[in-house]
Amino acid sequence: MTPYSACTSILIGKAASVDGSVMIGRNEDSRPAWPKHFIVHPATVTKQASFESTDNGFKMPLPETAYKYTATPEWTDKYGLFEEDGINQYGVAMSATESTYANDRVLAADPLVKDGIGEEAMITVTLPYIKTAREGVKRLGTIVAHYGTSESNGILFADRTEAWYFETGSGHYWVAQRIPDDSYAVVANQMAIQTIDFDDPKNFMWHPHIQEFVQEHALNPQRQGFNFREIFGTNNQMDAYYNLPRVWYGQKMFNPSTEQTTNSHTMPFIRQAEKLLSVEDAKDFLSSHFQETPYDPIGAGSLEERKKFRPVSLATTQESHILQLRQYSQPELSGIHWLAMGVAAQSVYVPFYAGITETPADYHRGLGTYSSDSAYWVFKQTGVLVDPHYKQFGDQLNQVQKELNQQFTRSVIETDQKAQPLNGIELTTLLTQESMKNAELALKKYRELSASLITQATAFSPLSYKQDLNL
Question: Which of 114, 175, 286, 365 is the most exposed place for a label (fewest CB within 10 A)?
Answer without folding.
Answer: 114
